[in-house]
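Appendix B, example 12.
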Amino acid sequence: ALAEGLAALHAHWWGWARLAAAAAPIHDDAFIRQFVAIAEPGLDPILAAAGDLLEPHWPGLMRDLYARHPAALIARAVDANGFTLIHGDVGENNVLMPRQGDRPIYIIDRQPFDWSLTTWLGVYDLVYAMVLDWDTPSRRALEWPVLRRYHDELLRRGVTGYSWERLVEDYRLMAAMGVYVATEYCRGGVTSRWWNFGPTTLRRVLTACDDLRCADLFA
């Protein structure tokens, strides 16, 4: 149901022509770098406070990601195929479902901040749901069926030229962005609120980066 709902949203605004009609151009290089720069100050405080909760190779992976991943995002933004209007915060608290059954669903509380990525790869919304919010066993078991349903629904709704292989690569590139989300909360320092969810979220994201070999896309 989530895959179908997001595909309906994304297909409606898919591609250059519809984004132009919405006055929502794809973000330029400076905007993408600004988005990353806002989150990056949270990196060192997290590594200092919670580094012992991470696998030994993860701090290096996070530093490499901040150094190299933005260039991969900028390069990807040259091609509009895959870009659309996104929600950007498809966390479990923003998805409403009926008391009985699983359709229709409603995705609420879109908050387009002046620095957030709002015209972006559609598959990022699925990353936000599955990589950041779902426990790792659930994500591993369900991510490919969900992505396949999403792709099928995009095609059914008239999206053309966006291959399954391209979607998978985009999903891997977007999964690494979960590190930005997990560290942005601590850009002013590690807070007590972050300890309630942050370590778990960060471990989920970094485990997904390992599973999906995300670093291969920006090494």
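Residues 136-156 form the longest helix (21 residues). Residues 15 and 80 are 6 Å apart (CA to CA).
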